[in-house]
Write a structure and sequence with these properties.
This protein is an alpha/beta fold. The protein has helices spanning about 1-25, 30-35, 40-45, 90-105, 155-160, 180-190, 200-210, 260, 280-285, 290-300, 315-320, 325, and strands at about 55-60, 60-65, 70, 75, 80, 90, 115, 140, 195-200, 220-225, 230-235, 310. It binds zinc ion. Zinc ion binds next to strand 8.
C-alpha cells in the first residue's frame, strides 16, 4: 500500500515536472497559456451561456457576450435548423427580435421562419463558418419558407437550402423570387434595432430594380458574398453593453448605385492568387479578444438549457416532446409562397447616348 502510494506520488511528480518543462519550452506560463490558446477552441467548446447580465464585448467579428439566451428549437412561427451546431444563442434583444419577426412575417403571409445560425452560447469565434456572429447580435434566416409540418432533427441537419441566385450571372433566379421575399426583407428592415441586413448582391439588385413606393428601407439591405439562401440580420449594440463596438452607420442612400454596380464586375469574384492569409477566426487567441471575454469563459452556467430558452413553447425540450406545444397555431395549410408569382426583373441598361444632332 505504502509502496504503491509512493510510486503513484513519484509518477505524479514526474508528470507535473514534465508539464512545467513543456510549458517553459513553449515559452509561456500558466496564465499566458490561456491567452495563447485559440479562442475558437475555447468558445467552440461551450455548451451553455454565462450566467450574467447580457453584455456584448468587442465587435461582431471579434468578441463574445455574456447572459445569452437560446431561442426554442420550435415555435408556432419558426423552426430552428442544424440543431447539432448549438448556435441558437444570442443577446436577449436578438432572440426577442427573431421571435417578433417570425410573428410579423406570418401576419404578412410568409409561412414561418427557418432559423440558421445565431451565436455560440458565449459567442466568440467559431470552429467552422462565420467570421461574425460573435457578440450575439447577428442571426441568419433562410429564404426557404417554413414547411407546414415539423421537420425531424435529421431533416434539420440535412435539408439543403436553395440558392435564389444564379452563381454565374449573380442575378436572382426569377422563378424562385416572390413578392413575399421582398415583404419579409422589408419587415426585417423595419425594426429600429436592425442596422443591417446582408444579402447576396443579386438580391439587392432585384430589390433595387423592383421595389416601388417607400424605398428608404433599402438603405439597410447590404450586398455581400454568399447570403443567397439566407439573409443575415444584424442589430446594433444594445443599451448597457459598454464594451460593444458599433459599426459605421450605413450611407443614407438606397445603395442602388455604383457601389452595387461593382458587384457585377469581375473584380469581387476574381480568385485570389498568391499565398493565402489565414482567416482571422482561425488564428484569434484569447489575447486578441477584449479582456472581458476571459471572464465570460469563466463565468458560471445556468442550470440547464431550458432555464435560458426563450420562445412561445417555453423550452426546446418541451417543444419537441409535447405535441400540443409543437403544433403550429398559425394556419400554414396553404402551400408555401407561390413559386412563380413575380414578373421577371426588367433589364435595366444604362441610357444610350443620344446621337449627335446633324447639321
Ligand atoms: Zn450570417
Amino acid at each position: 500500500m505504502e509502496t504503491r502510494m509512493n510510486s503513484f506520488l513519484r509518477a505524479a511528480t514526474r508528470l507535473a515536472a514534465a508539464a512545467v518543462a513543456a510549458v517553459t519550452l513553449l515559452g509561456f506560463e500558466a496564465p499566458g497559456a490561456h491567452a495563447a490558446e485559440l479562442a475558437k477552441e475555447l468558445f467552440g467548446a461551450q455548451k451553455l451561456p454565462s450566467l450574467a447580465q447580457p453584455h456584448s464585448y468587442g465587435f461582431y467579428s471579434k468578441g463574445c457576450f455574456s447572459g445569452g439566451v437560446a431561442i426554442a428549437t420550435d415555435g408556432p412561427t419558426w423552426q430552428a435548423m442544424r440543431l447539432s451546431r448549438n448556435r441558437r444563442w444570442g443577446h436577449p434583444a436578438m432572440i426577442k427580435l427573431i421571435e417578433k419577426l417570425s410573428h410579423d412575417a406570418v401576419a404578412d403571409g410568409w409561412p414561418g421562419l427557418l432559423l440558421g445560425d445565431i451565436s455560440q452560447p458565449r459567442g466568440g469565434p467559431m470552429l467552422t463558418g462565420h467570421a461574425s456572429h460573435q457578440i450575439g447580435l447577428d442571426a441568419d434566416i433562410w429564404f426557404t419558407p417554413m414547411p407546414n409540418r415539423r421537420l425531424t432533427p435529421a431533416e434539420r441537419e440535412n435539408m439543403s437550402a436553395t440558392s435564389l441566385v444564379n452563381e454565374k450571372t449573380h442575378l436572382v433566379i426569377d422563378k424562385l423570387w416572390t413578392p413575399a421575399h421582398e415583404r419579409l426583407l422589408k419587415r426585417a428592415a423595419s425594426y429600429p434595432e436592425v442596422e443591417r441586413i446582408l444579402v447576396n448582391p443579386g438580391i439587392k439588385k432585384k430589390l433595387c430594380d423592383t421595389v416601388t413606393g417607400d424605398r428608404s428601407w433599402l438603405r439597410k439591405i447590404r450586398p455581400f458574398w454568399g447570403h443567397d439562401y439566407h439573409f443575415h440580420v444584424r442589430i446594433g449594440c444594445q443599451p448597457g453593453s459598454v464594451g460593444c463596438k458599433a459599426q459605421d452607420p450605413t450611407p443614407q442612400s438606397d445603395g442602388c448605385d455604383k457601389s452595387l454596380a461593382w458587384w457585377f464586375t469581375e473584380e469581387p469574384w476574381r480568385p485570389a492568387t498568391g499565398p493565402q492569409k489565414p482567416r482571422a477566426r482561425d488564428v484569434m487567441t484569447m489575447a486578441s479578444l477584449p479582456k472581458e471575454c476571459r471572464a465570460v469563459l469563466n463565468e458560471h452556467s445556468p442550470q440547464s438549457e431550458a432555464a435560458v430558452t426563450m420562445g412561445d413553447t417555453g423550452g426546446s425540450a418541451v417543444a419537441t416532446t409535447t405535441p400540443e406545444a409543437a403544433k403550429p397555431t398559425v394556419d400554414v395549410g396553404e402551400p408555401p409562397v407561390p413559386a412563380n408569382a413575380f414578373a421577371p426583373t426588367p433589364i435595366k441598361r444604362p441610357p444610350l447616348p443620344l446621337p449627335k444632332p446633324s447639321r
